Structure formats: C-alpha cells, structure tokens
Amino acid sequence: MNNVKKMKNTNRSVLLGAAFLMATSAIGPGFLTQTTVFTETLLASFGFVILISIIIDIGAQTNIWRIIAISGKRAQDIANDVLPGLGYVLAFLVVIGGLAFNIGNIAGAGLGTNVLFGISPELGAGLSGLLAVGIFMVKEAGRAMDRFAQILGFVMIALTVYVMITAQPPIGEAVAKTFVPDTIDIFAIVTLVGGTVGGYITFAGGHRLIDAGMTGKRHLPQVTRSSIYAIGVASIMRVILFLAVLGVVSQGLALDPSNPPASVFQLAAGNVGYKIFGVVMWAAAVTSVVGAAYTSVSFIRSFSPVLEKYHRYLTIGFIVISTIVFISIGRPVLILLLVGSLNGLILPIALGVMLIAAHKKKIVGDYKHPLWMTIFGVVIVIAMSWMGGYTLLNGIPQLFK
To answer: Transmembrane residues, as ranges (predicted)?
Structure first.
C-alpha cells in the first residue's frame, strides 16, 4: 500500500515537474519583452492575441505530448521513423533556436542580478550560468530540475500579481477587447505561439516525461492534463503581465524602450517594483537556461551511444557556450522578438510530423489518436504555416526598419 502511494506521489511530482519545466522554459526574457512590447503597441486588443495563442498552444501541445508518450520516443526519433533523415533536420532547427534563445536567457539572468545587486550583467550571467551547471552536476539532476522550475515558477507569478494590482489595469476594457479587438496582429500571434510552444519549448516537458518513464496508454490521461496545466501556468503569467503593462500605459506613462519590462515594474511599484523586476527577470531567465539546455541536448543524445552516455556534460557545455557568447557579444531586444517568431515557424513542421506519426502503427502500435485532436492539429499546422509565411514576408522585415 505504501509503495503504491509512493509511486502515485512520484508520478504526480514528475507530471508537475514536466509542466513547470515547459512553462518556465517559455517564461524567459523574450517572453517578458514580447508581452510588454506588444501590449504597449496593441493595448487592450492584445488580449485577443493572447486568447488565440492559448487555443493554438493547447492544440499543439496536447497532440505532441500524447504522441511522444504513446510512442515512448523523443521527437527526433519519431521524425526519423516518419521519414529517414527528417529527425536530424528537426534536431538542427531546434538546437540552433535553443542556442539563440539561451544566449538571451543568460543575458536576462545577468540583467536580473544587475538590478538586484548592482553587479555587472556579465558577472551576473556568469554566476547564473554556474548555478544552472550545478543543477546538472547533482546525481538526481531530473528531480532537482523539476523542483527548481516549480519553486521559481511560483515566485515569478506571485511577484507579478503584486505589480499587476499596483498598476490598476482597466480589466473591463481588457476583457471586452479580448473578444472584440480593435486590431488583429498576425505577427504578434506567431511570435507568442513561437515563444510558448515553438522550437524546443513544447518538447521540454514531453522529453522530461520520456526520461522519467511516463509512457504508454496508461499514462495518457495524466500526460494530457500535465500538458494543459503547463500551458495554463505560462498563460496565467502572460495574462498577469499583460494586465500590469496595460495598467501602466493606460495611465499615459511611457515605457523605456531600452528595457520595457523593467520600466513597467518600476512605474507600477516604484523602487520596490524595480527590485521585483530583478527577481522575476532572473527567475524567468535562469529557469529558461535550464529548460533550453536540457531540451536542446535531448534532441541529439539519442543519435549516438556516446552522446547518450555523456548527455549531462553536453548540457553543461551548452550552458557554458551560451554564457561565453553573451559575455562576448551581448543581446539586443530585436533578437528576442526575431527568434520568437522564427521558433513559431518550426512549430507547423514539428506538429505536422507528429500528426503523421500518430497514424503509423510502427510508431504508435494499436493506439487510435482521437479524430478531433487530429483535425485540431491539422488546422493549427495550416494556420501557423500561413501566418508564418505572412510574417516572413511582412512582419520580420518591419523589425529591421
């Protein structure tokens, strides 16, 4: 009886850890910057962008996590089963995107420590990188990563709620414009989806479940709940931050273009708010460093027994390289917006592969993927492909003007 109870608690911990790993991987410096910049531009109508992105996020993530769980394989191996060589292409895209994002994550950690302690961003980034490396040095790295993501996830949300309350946002207007917006920004939708479930992010929790052995039909209900919970955590943070920014800009206050998120916290709650921003930025950044490194390496570790054997050292190397690159060249806000949108372009490829795999017996056995989920997924693939193409032709060039 005690063993059964212990097993249930372990499973619950793993599922919660996977959810928070994915959510905190999404909530990074780019997440904070994107939400702030788009809210300042679209005002209350940004609520519509958030709503559409949540719907797309849930459809994409529930499909991907279920197929990973039922096959018991990581995404790159599933892709290679669908079409030999495709897994290597997918892994390349994810790892490059993950590395680019991780440079921004390391930079965000440095900025957070600079706000909190007054030390240089480079020194703060280096110390934060060492902390992230330390997580993968411990024997139970997976468990340490799960707990780390959960604790800092709760801290980020709680502190941002305080700032939102002090900002006194026009909630009624936000609700109304969420359903009847003044304008619809396709670039913003692609960027938000890319920053939440694009690139490596949606696979963070899915691959964590593989490592923990949470696979097979019997775990599908828990896996589905965990995938939705993960989107829920990230979405709650997005909505809270949106309302905080809306409250500030609705008062006619101007944000600092060099650091929009920091100015929101400072304008809403003074010096206390500025220090809170430091904590939130650091927590968002360092958890994303851990998630990006873990997930990016998980996309290549299965390609060779040597890579599998030394995957922890590869993860550590990934973090070290990201830290060195930031200390050498820095991170502009432009890159965070750009990489978020490019990650959104990876999503239709990854999801499309997963949907094909869901109907191949050699991958999923006798499992029958729900028809409504397949249709939902196909609609997302088509919509994100069209919006991604539109963004390539119109949205991204605007960033360079």
So the answer is: 42-60, 81-103, 115-136, 148-166, 186-206, 227-254, 274-300, 312-329, 335-358, 370-393
Rg (CA), the chain: 20
The alpha carbon of residue 59 and the mean position of all alpha carbons in its chain are separated, in whole angstroms, by: 15
Beta-strand ranges (E) seen in 97-194 are: none
Nearest alpha carbon to residue 237 among 281, 272, 298: 281
On the question of pLDDT at 47 being above 90, the answer is: yes
User: What are the domain boundaries of the chain?
Assistant: 13-399
Superfamily of domain 13-399: Amino acid/polyamine transporter I (1.20.1740.10)
Calpha distance 203→210 (Å, rounded): 10
Mean pLDDT of 183-207: 81
Q: How many CA atoms lie within 13 A of 350 on its CB side?
A: 29
Which of 388, 399, 395 shows the shortest CA–CA distance to 194?
388
pTM: 0.84
* Contact by Cβ (8 Å): 77, 88: no
Distance from CA of residue 17 to its chain's centroid? 14
pLDDT tens for each residue of 343-393: 667 778 888 999 999 999 989 888 899 999 999 899 988 887 887 676 666
Tokens representing residue 342 in the block: 């490019």
The number of helices, as runs of H, and strands, as runs of E, in the chain is: 18, 0
